[in-house]
Specification:
The complex is a heterodimer. Chain A has helices spanning about 15-55, 75, 85-95, 100-110, 115-125, 145-150, 165-175, 190, 205-235, 240-255, 255-270, 280-305, 305-315, 320-350, 350-355, 375-385, 390-420; strands at about 60-70, 135-140, 180-185. Chain A is mainly alpha-helical. Chain B has helices at about 5-25, 40-80, 90-100, 100-105, 110-150, 155-195, 200-205, 225-260, 260-275, 280-300, 310-335, 340-345, 350-380, 385-390, 405-415, 425-455, and strands at about 205-210, 225. In chain B, helix 1 packs antiparallel against helix 2, helix 2 runs antiparallel to helix 5 (about 110-150) and helix 13 packs antiparallel against helix 16. Classes of the chains: A mainly alpha, B mainly alpha. At the A-B interface, helix 1, helix 9, helix 10, helix 11 and helix 12 of A face helix 6, helix 8, helix 9, helix 10 and helix 11 of B.
Chain lengths: ~425, ~450
């Protein structure tokens, strides 16, 4: 018996031209969809960086005002005893003789940063001025005037709706016409620590704090990480324990950073009694956090060294430890260093665990050693982002630019190191 | 004598011990080939005999010294008249605080001043005693090592055994970290659950952890129902995933299937920059750039948008997550064997049809794993939500309202002054425990899926 042929012979593939057009169109659509997705991701990166740069570039310049300081020869002779607060105020008042009432004077002083008497004192001290007279000194304007100069304060608003009064505007315009208002490079931003006054705030304190913290992180996590990698890769017998350690390290790498903060708070601060807010405690937590990264990258660097090197060394009578320390580890070192730098870059950008370790305090001094209260760059950014003053917005962005610059440099070094020492066996 | 100079002296003596061992080994024989081990191993041998006993003394001292000082001080406290008002322990703490605070010391009473001086005296005596004991024990170690040294001694074996041991200890630190995390979270959480029942914590609908300072105030005991927090976390994670999964997956498909190797080598690290940007930067971006834009846009359409909307935090978090999905999925799609594609092409399928019908189904488990990893990353992410999401725990599914997350609550409960036995601070550890367990499960499941899938094609 022969089966009858199926009736519908036309059930073959549909090879009509329209269907081809449709299929190729969907093919093209799909491809461009992928490209579009990459485009969106890239444009996000561009929007992010450009918004930071757009917001932050103005922070590198600070508005300065020139005032003619009248100083007597007695005051010059004994600078450390002279009343510079008084000298500054009389000098300011003599510029605007029409200002009489106490309230107006107060407003007038508010054109300037409240630390200018120190600036003026330093000017006379540095320039070793020996005789009295009138000197033109450029001093910092207050944050509000700085914002006005940079165009962040709208003059057309009602007086009650802006931070600068009509009178202050008038004085500002008068000074501006005399060419006595200028934007100069903001040195303070790089030489000062945190301050309540935006124009006196800088990132040096946070930067030093970051460096001290990273130093602790590096000296703890690099030797321990490399040691652990060597042991796991070369000495540990493959058994239940080594599997457990391996799974454990992989999981540790994915634990949220804030959990490390909780660990640090409960164990390092409360149990071991390490000093709060100190780089040594913060660095220890970051070391635990970067340890998995360093172990994983060090292990892959060790794996990349070919077995022939080991066999040659063992064949020449070297012990296993000698083989490792004299031959394998030096060859794997560039890879390990690359991993360490990437781990350090991670640690540099980390904020959450350090909040738990109390590094969020308001600290006006540059930390001098590892147990001083300190803050770090990302935490400083976090603190400034919370500050209500408009002038801190641009400083936050500028601090972010500095942080990103450090991160880019570290990653570039890592890439160059890898490129330079990469060996094909 | 500060820590730095102490470390310096320790290192100098250590290298002295090494040199001594080295020289001694060489001087004990006429020809260096008569030695069993290289002279440097003899040096290491002596150095280890110095360092280990000394370090053990150091650790021991660290734990013993406070106890001894405490007992001596308590003895002298008992003889003073100060005890009437406070307990000895409180007084002791007071003295320790005074000793580090020269400003407060000026206004301290004479009796206290005497105690403070006694405390400082004991401390400095302790430091000298420590150094003397430490170095004499170390010297004893060197002396023992010298007795043991001989040309025939197997110094290399002993030194290598110690080195291997040290390396092993390094690898155990990773395990100790996990144990530390688990124990500290569990310990504090149990203390929390003694005060608040676990059922209330896990299923309660009301969260207001502020406990009153005095018992007669309104709301004297806070409410610890964490459901609104979990809901907020899920909402923000969901928004992030809605952003990250399509963009990440499509980018991965393009990179793996369409892009030229040159383009791929360039675009993949560029996308990974998104994951390398510190989260605090994203937080700033979300709070000061994205949130106002969303708010303005929503209000122009007549919607009421909270200034700390879940949408802003979720969107920015989604952008941060993109590379986690794109890079891992790209690797996984690349691991699908070429033979599957070739088979599909041979049947006349176009490239996109092959991808949709053959490659993606084959890669699906791995992609699911990468998405799970991304979810765990999003749940544990802290800074974006701290800066851009709200504080008030509200049970809502509206992305335009402010919600709060587990990580935000941990940070707000623990930053600032804290007393360590109030349910408020302990609640942070309970939340931390939930966070740890959830991310751990997600990670383990994801790793199992990815690993199983890889084995299939290897």
């Amino acid at each position: 018996m022969i089966n009858p042929m199926p009736k519908s012979i036309d059930r073959g593939p549909n090879l009509s031209a329209e269907r081809f057009v449709k299929r190729y169109r969907s093919e093209k659509c799909f491809k461009y969809l992928g490209l579009f997705a990459i485009g969106i991701a890239l444009s996000m990166l561009i929007v992010l960086t450009s918004s930071i740069i757009f917001k932050g570039h103005s922070a590198f310049w600070q508005t300065h005002i020139a005032i003619d300081v009248q100083i007597t020869s007695e005051d010059v002779a004994s600078i450390s005893n002279a009343n510079f607060r008084g000298i500054t105020r009389t000098s300011i008042r003599s510029e605007f003789p029409e200002v009489k009432s106490r309230r107006d004077k107060k407003q007038l002083y508010k054109l300037f940063s409240n630390g200018i008497s120190f600036e003026i004192k330093e000017y006379f001290f540095k320039n070793k001025i020996q005789s009295g007279g009138i000197y033109r000194v450029w001093v910092k304007a207050s944050a509000d005037i700085d914002m006005l100069r940079k165009g962040f304060i709208n003059r057309d608003l009602e007086e009650t709706n802006r931070r600068i009064s009509d009178k202050q505007l008038k004085w500002y315009d008068q000074l501006d016409q005399e060419g006595r208002i200028e934007k100069k490079f903001n040195v303070t931003f790089f030489t000062a620590a945190d301050s309540r006054e935006p124009e006196q705030a800088g990132i040096l304190g946070a930067l030093v704090g970051s460096i001290l913290t990273l130093f602790i992180t590096l000296i703890l996590s690099f030797p321990i990480g490399v040691g652990a990698a060597i042991y796991l890769e070369e000495f540990a017998k493959k058994n239940y324990w080594s599997d457990l350690i391996e799974v454990n390290i992989n999981n540790l790498a994915a634990v949220p950073s804030i959990v490390f903060g909780l660990l640090g708070l409960a164990v390092l601060l409360n149990w071991f009694g390490m000093p709060r807010s100190a780089p040594i405690a913060g660095g220890a937590v970051l070391a635990l956090m970067t340890l998995p990264t360093i172990i994983i990258s060090s292990r892959s660097a060790l794996k990349a060294v070919p077995p022939s090197i080991r066999e040659a060394a063992l064949g020449m009578g070297a012990s296993r430890l000698q083989t490792m320390l004299h031959h394998v580890v030096p060859l794997a070192m560039p890879g390990m260093l690359t991993g360490a730098i990437i781990g350090m870059a991670q640690a540099l950008g980390e904020t959450a665990p350090l909040l738990m370790m109390g590094m969020v305090a308001f600290i006006v001094d540059v930390p001098g050693n590892l147990t001083d209260a300190a803050t770090v760059l990302p935490v400083q950014i976090f603190l400034w982002a919370d500050a209500p003053e408009r002038a801190f917005v641009e400083r936050t962005s500028a601090a972010i630019m500095v942080l990103l610059l450090f991160l880019v440099t570290m990653n570039l070094v890592a890439i160059l190191l890898r490129k330079h020492f990469e060996r094909r066996w | 004598m500060n820590t730095f100079s102490f470390i310096c002296i320790f290192l100098i003596v250590l290298s002295g011990a090494y040199i001594f061992g080295h020289r001694y080994a060489l001087s004990s024989v006429k020809n260096s080939t008569e030695l069993h081990s290289l002279p440097s191993y003899h040096g290491f041998y002596v150095a280890i005999w110095f360092a280990f006993p000394a370090l053990i003394v150091l650790v021991f001292w660290y734990f013993i010294e406070p106890i001894i000082i405490k007992s001596i001080l308590l003895e002298s406290i008992r003889t003073t008249a100060l005890l009437g008002s406070t307990t000895p322990d409180l007084l002791l703490n007071d003295i320790k605080n005074l000793a580090t605070n020269s400003f407060a010391l000026k206004s301290a009473s004479a009796v206290k001043l005497e105690l403070v001086n006694r405390y400082l005296e004991l401390k400095s005596l302790g430091i000298y005693l420590k150094i003397v004991i430490l170095f004499s024990i170390g010297m004893l170690g060197i002396f023992i090592a010298r007795k043991k040294l001989s040309p025939k001694m197997r110094a290399r074996q002993s030194v290598e055994r110690v080195f291997t041991l040290v390396l092993g200890v390094c690898s155990i630190i990773a395990i100790l970290t996990t144990i530390g995390i688990v124990l500290s979270l569990l310990f504090e959480s149990i203390r929390f659950f003694n005060k608040v029942s676990p059922a209330e914590f896990l299923f309660g609908l009301h969260w207001s952890p502020q406990t009153a300072l005095r018992s007669d105030q309104i709301g004297a005991s806070g409410a610890f129902g964490a459901v609104p927090i979990f809901a907020g976390t899920l909402l923000i994670t969901l928004i992030a995933m809605i952003v990250a999964i399509p963009i990440g997956l499509l980018s991965a498909i393009y990179m793996a299937e369409y892009a030229s190797p040159k383009f791929r080598n360039w675009i993949k690290p560029t996308l990974e920059i998104l994951a390398g940007v510190p989260t605090v930067v994203y937080g700033f971006f979300a709070a000061l750039t994205v949130a106002p834009v969303i708010r303005g846009f929503g209000e122009s359409m007549g919607l009421s948008v909270a200034s700390e909307s879940a949408l802003a935090a979720g969107l920015v978090m989604g952008v941060m997550i993109i590379p986690f999905i794109s890079s891992l999925s790209d690797d996984i799609i690349n691991a699908v064997p070429q033979s599957l594609r070739d088979g599909s092409y041979a049947m006349g399928a176009t490239k996109s049809e092959t991808i949709k019908k053959v490659v993606l189904p084959a890669a699906l488990p791995g992609i699911a794993g990468s998405i799970l990893l991304a979810v765990s990353r999003a749940i544990g992410e802290t800074m974006i939500v701290v800066m851009a999401a709200g504080l008030a725990a509200k049970l809502t599914a509206n992305p335009l309202e402010a919600v709060t997350t587990v990580t935000v609550q941990i940070v707000t409960l623990l930053v600032g002054d804290q007393e360590f036995d109030s349910p408020k601070t302990l609640a942070a550890f309970a939340l931390g425990l939930v966070l740890f367990v959830v991310t751990l499960i997600l990670n383990i499941v994801a790793l199992i899926i990815v690993r199983k899938y890889r084995e299939k094609y290897d």
